[in-house]
Amino acid sequence: MKVLVTDPIAEAGIERIREQGHEIEKAYNLSQEELLDAVVDANALIVRSGTEVTREVLEAAEELVIVGRAGIGVDNIDIEAATDNGVIVANAPEGNVRAAAEHTVAMTFATARSIPQAHERLSDGEWAKGDFLGTEVNDKTLGIVGFGRVGQEVAKRLNNLGMELVVYDPYISEERAEQLGAELVNDLTECLRAADFVTIHTPLTDETENMIGAEELAQLEGGYVINCARGGIVDEEALAEAVDDGILSGAAVDVFANEPVERDNPLLWVEDIIVTPHLGASTEAAQENVATETAEQILAAFEEEPVMNALNAPSVDESSFPKIEPYIDLADTAGKIAVQLFDQRVEEVDVEYFGDIADEDVDLVTASALKGVFEPLEWQVNAVNAPRVAERRGIDVTESKSRQSEDFQSRVTVTVSNDEDSVSVCGTQFVGDDSRIIRIDGYRVDAIPHGHMLVARNEDAPGVIGFIGSVLGEADINIAGMFNGRETIGGEALSVYNLDDPVSEEVLEELNADDRVIDTKYISLNGR
Ligand SMILES: NC(=O)C1=CN([C@@H]2O[C@H](COP(=O)(O)OP(=O)(O)OC[C@H]3O[C@@H](n4cnc5c(N)ncnc54)[C@H](O)[C@@H]3O)[C@@H](O)[C@H]2O)C=CC1
Ligand SMILES: O=C(O)C(=O)COP(=O)(O)O
């Protein structure tokens, strides 16, 4: 597999991928055109914040399985487009949290004590001791906007340094805030009014973009703003103006709406605003952590194992995975068989779980069943985009679970239907990776789902199976295995043949022409 790396990551991650035999191509600072060229044959793409992964890039990347973000923020990746194209997006949400929190603390002190400004004056030979009267953080109130991983780590650190904490985050519980000694408030204005320092730790989303403008900054009168989250959350012009006009005492900014930042960015030209070039995650430990975390996601995707930090694929927790793993492929196969037997317009897909598997998190299994149903119908479907393909095709998807499972420990049934008709295929897993189809509609069967199959509905009469066997034999199609199921003696029977070769239309016609044969369907499980 080829892994394209377009922003520098730690060698530890590169090595982890290489040692599994994959090829790494490093290509930094690419123009959009160069990136479009480079991704064409990439199976994975690793980025940090420096690469814009647009819809165009994702559409050009026909072999792409996963985009790994060696860090937290994914605002530079079009996740919608990735999902549409069946590409997993995974980040590394843990590895740089402490680095980002420490940088925030450093920036808080640096702005409160004007350290960069004092350094610059002294470097110029000026002993400007009298010009810098700083602010202590002790006994001041820190307003935290966004109380996720980084926000909470900042809270712990600055609380220990004597700050009171006020938090604004509409998506966290009061208990969580209380546990960390913070007061949760209901609106941003309340947070800004209460605070002496405000630090931002939300992602950049449609909701947070320009969330803090001139009006909001005015509520913080005399205070300081620290933004180590994302440029674009705080309006840059408004912040520069508020500090320049003395409405705020200072600001510390690590992230910018456009990076690398342009020389004319107003934040660079205000004395009391200090800036760093997006250094929050830039520590040795953090870079090693996120690079290896990302490498693990890439390798899991290549192995078709669950990608634990996937942002757009059904996730599975580590403890459930061994229990559902055999059913991922089985559901896919049952879906493929069902849709090929149905051979009509599908309006509904129902996935039912019986027995022990009903206790597990089965999102990935259901997505896999959908993949199976859609694979014979369209290109480029996988567990990432299968639910979306269903939505786009207007197909209702239902999932049901029951602890009862008759004779089997677990089984999964995939039913495809429309108003008039339906086909159900049920499978189970025996010990030792041995999957079987055990029911097709009402018929009990025992078929190994593999390669080429023929499913025939016929009269339960002497000689029919012999007839089918001889037609296949004449066409030089070898029968590897066969199972016959019937409802009542002399009624209708259903036989399933495992074949070594595909079955042509002519052979099906010859079989169907016999009065005793109700219907035959050739099923290929070899993909398109
Ligand atoms: N400067 C740097 O190098 C780094 C920057 N970051 C940035 O830090 C930010 C936070 O990262 P994490 O804490 O790991 O993310 P997280 O997902 O753990 O936390 C984000 C928090 O923001 C809250 N939130 C979302 N919308 C909100 C809104 N409208 N108002 C208030 N709160 C809102 C969420 O409920 C969540 O609690 C991200 O933007 C990330 O990209 C992260 C690492 C390094
Ligand atoms: O992890 C994040 O969200 C960061 O902002 C770090 O960005 P970077 O990997 O240094 O480009």
TrEMBL record:
Instruction: Please give the CDD domains that the UniProt record associates with this protein.
Output: ACT_3PGDH-xct, PGDH_4
Where is the ACT domain positioned along the sequence? 453-525
Q: Which GO terms describe its biological process?
A: L-serine biosynthetic process
Pathway info: Amino-acid biosynthesis; L-serine biosynthesis; L-serine from 3-phospho-D-glycerate: step 1/3
Coiled-coil ranges (or none): none
Q: Which GO terms describe its molecular function?
A: NAD binding; phosphoglycerate dehydrogenase activity
Source domain of life is Archaea
State the SUPFAM superfamilies in the record.
Answer: ACT-like (SSF55021), Formate/glycerate dehydrogenase catalytic domain-like (SSF52283), NAD(P)-binding Rossmann-fold domains (SSF51735), Serine metabolism enzymes domain (SSF143548)
> Is the keyword Zinc assigned to this protein?
no
InterPro entries per the UniProt record, alphabetical: ACT-like_dom_sf, ACT_dom, ASB_dom_sf, D-isomer_2_OHA_DH_cat_dom, D-isomer_DH_CS1, D-isomer_DH_NAD-bd, NAD(P)-bd_dom_sf, PGDH
Give, as one word, the top-level EC class: oxidoreductase
Instruction: Give UniProt keywords alphabetically.
Output: Amino-acid biosynthesis, NAD, Oxidoreductase, Serine biosynthesis
What this protein catalyses is:
(2R)-3-phosphoglycerate + NAD(+) = 3-phosphooxypyruvate + NADH + H(+)
Q: Determine if NADP is one of this entry's keywords.
A: no
Entry EC no(s): 1.1.1.95
Which family, according to UniProt?
Belongs to the D-isomer specific 2-hydroxyacid dehydrogenase family.
- Protein known as: D-3-phosphoglycerate dehydrogenase
Specify the species.
Halovenus carboxidivorans
